[in-house]
């Protein structure tokens, strides 16, 4: 019973539905017109803020032009009304189209460079408001504004007072559910990955540029809708309603509520409408106060009120409701699923790559057969990581070919390479914040199938099917490595070695055709090494192709079927471990002149672990 | 020709703002969103010193330079240094916050009414090369070109410029070689702030002092920067002049409401077709 209640309150928007039902009935309980307007204003700002949540909070793009999109929506509604089209749904549709166009026009060029250019391109929108209003003064009323826009219709029925209130609240709520469904889906997950690391996003199969454009454009839509409600609520609009100060106030409300949360938006909006900054005595300093507030929040990088709420809930949850039974059921599910990892042949021919004249790769040739574990060893600077980066598309070689099962990978973007089936890990584990171990592993699945945004919004069966499949594969990969018991732990707080292992698990969950591991054993204790060994063998035994770059020579010699030794950007020896171990050049350049690898290895492995601790890679 | 002079002089204002952006970018590796606000601050301060206090223009210039440097350094220490190593997410919010704080303080202190300050070099316009031009316009154009060329040479020739170029292209490598990246950044903010303050008495007769122009200066200065190329001081001059000419000719032949649209289109085109700008180096794409 308690368990059910817990799932209901935490994993579903149940509480929000309750609040909505209460709010929409408020006029029946005698809420007067003034307060109805205040609540509607909260709804309007909620829409604008929720858009900022998506573009800024989740995708990390500062859409300073949100108010201009809001203004565009407002003018669209007003102009349609004056032309005799009073239907509110029609106005919303038109506003959404205008918002999408505005988002695309500014987002496609603005997102090509870094965050700043989008912030400024969208900021420019605010400057365009007075221009547009005066160019089209025939329909916009110029700076005098448009009065008398009262009583929209819905399917031919005029909406007055409480009815308009209820429609506004209901439609706002529908958007919030849509927004919530988008965020609680693959789309929201990959946006969280994106804000943690663009490189990781690409290697998981997500196009950073496309995701940024998507999040930014979708974030503009609710602002357009908000404009429609605002027009009908105020009954009058003029360019003066849409200022830079409003932009800043809404941004402050967004970060106060919690920029990367769904339900932070209404809270922030409510504080903006009802809070202390509205007091007349405070007005003079309000702009300065918003600015100070933005700096403070930025420095503390707090997750706003939503972050505080999340911490409280987690604490209560851990204390009173945590159930060991849940973890058991996780293990039971895991044993049912089986991963299929169809390995493919990786061929690298004559690959070169120079950095500022220095040849990091100088004609590398190697072939990796499916169903094997292949290790690449060599001193620091031999070009091992550069080679992995070239294969995974993170950087592009100057010459040479790289083929996976006959398909050319050179020149493809990292996300394409990932989608073709190259999975990889990093020297410094990239684990996004505030994700459980299970969620992190599930992100490894993103390369299979699209984001299915529509299915996620409507919660179609396909959405649940994909989610179930993701979960099963993730659990299977976790139990491959013996980590299933950690499934519900916070991934970032795990020790370094476990996080490194978790990266491998995440890549395995994606069922890659070739798995590239960048120094996975560094910093692992004996148990960790055993788990890693187990995971790699199981991956190989299910047909997978594993390539690892590693300094821990005893580990390599024991696990690998084939070893390539690199020096100064070329392969100097290759073959089964025992052959490479005895190779004269390998001993000279890497293993040590005494010819006894076991003594040398300890220091090499230790030093590479140190290097990783300081954040190399 | 009058239109050309008008364009070049207003362009000089944008060029000087783009140069300000470039100073913190080339010497400090950081984009200062609040630079336009610093220019507005300098304008208000000039009005306060010259009109309210009745002091000479050079007093406003010198004390303005000190004030500008001070405010910029405080901005760097409070809003940038604590977050520079976190994700750019935070930096985005804090520098926007800095702009808003400066704007908010100006509004609370001097209100949102625009103020005007007469130019110390005379108000009488005269004919030059067949067009009417006023003394302040001549000063602005000469100063913008001089400052831009000066910084161009300074960035190329000076030790500071060399160290800074190393620091912005590879901060970690620079640190290893004993370059104090943080001090360079603070210094660059001080320099940009001082420049904004110093030029207050020349800029404010042209722009007027008002909080309302902050966003215009911020955005058009950025367009000048984008057109000229990020990291190029000569590009900033050209970018600023191009913006100014588009604005002046747009005003003259289409009407005052069109230039923002034209410039918006220009910005989108540049970002789409030549993101490094006309004179930009490919390396400096931190913006």
Automatic annotation (TrEMBL), chain A:
NADP as UniProt keyword: no
Compositionally biased spans, kind Low complexity: 598-611
PROSITE patterns on file: ABC_TRANSPORTER_2
Keywords associated with the record: ATP-binding, Cell membrane, Membrane, Nucleotide-binding, Transmembrane, Transmembrane helix, Transport
GO CC annotation terms, alphabetical: plasma membrane
GO-annotated molecular function: ATP binding; ATP hydrolysis activity; branched-chain amino acid transmembrane transporter activity
Membrane-spanning intervals of the chain: 7-29, 35-56, 63-82, 88-111, 118-139, 159-178, 215-237, 249-275, 287-309
Protein name: Branched-chain amino acid ABC transporter ATP-binding protein/permease
Protein's membrane topology: Multi-pass membrane protein
InterPro entries: AAA+_ATPase, ABC_AA/LPS_Transport, ABC_transp_permease, ABC_transporter-like_ATP-bd, BCA_ABC_TP_C, LivM-like, P-loop_NTPase
SMART domains: AAA
SUPFAM superfamilies found in the cross-reference section: P-loop containing nucleoside triphosphate hydrolases
Residue ranges occupied by any ABC transporter domain in the UniProt entry: 346-593
Region Disordered: start-end pairs: 593-617
Main localization of the protein described in the UniProt heading: membrane
Subcellular location: Cell membrane
Gene3D superfamilies the UniProt entry points to: P-loop containing nucleotide triphosphate hydrolases (3.40.50.300)
UniProtKB/TrEMBL annotation, chain B:
Single GO MF annotation: transmembrane transporter activity
Pfam families, A to Z: BPD_transp_2
Domain of life: Bacteria
Annotated TM spans: 6-24, 31-51, 57-78, 90-110, 138-155, 182-203, 209-226, 256-273
Topological category with respect to the lipid bilayer: Multi-pass membrane protein
GO biological process: amino acid transport
Keywords: Amino-acid transport, Cell membrane, Membrane, Transmembrane, Transmembrane helix, Transport
Subcellular location: Cell membrane
GO cellular component term of the entry, any: plasma membrane
Signal peptide: none
InterPro entries found in the cross-reference section: ABC_transp_permease (IPR001851), BCAA_transport_permease (IPR052157)
Family classification: Belongs to the binding-protein-dependent transport system permease family. LivHM subfamily.
The protein's name: Branched-chain amino acid ABC transporter permease
Organism: Mumia zhuanghuii
